[in-house]
Amino acid sequence: MTVKTLAEINKGEKVTIKTLAGGKSFKEKLVNLGLLPGVEIEVVSTTPKGPFILKIRDSKIVLGYGMVQKILVA
Asked: What's the CATH number where 22 sits?
């Protein structure tokens, strides 16, 4: 199992969050959105160095490139 940042994942791929590599407020923000270790997410849309649209359960959320670089997935 290879661990990558979410920024390295392609459109249409499903991955599981392994670690949130950021400060306390960053982690709290993601946990409040439902993004925590063990949760499966699907990358709906990506743009180079731009926003990522993610599907988590029955919801879609948008995260900036800086944020997805701090989310480790497998």
From this structure: 2.30.30.90
Which own/partner contact pairs does 25-34 have at CB distance under 8 Å and 24+ positions apart?
26/67, 26/70, 30/67, 30/71, 33/61, 34/59
Give the phi and the psi of residue 57 in degrees, each rounded to 5.
55, -120
pLDDT tens sequence for the chain (74 residues): 799 999 999 999 999 999 999 999 999 999 999 999 999 999 999 988 889 999 999 999 999 999 999 999 99
Rg (Cα) of the chain, in Å, rounded? 11
Tell me the residue range of the domain where 25 lies: 4-73
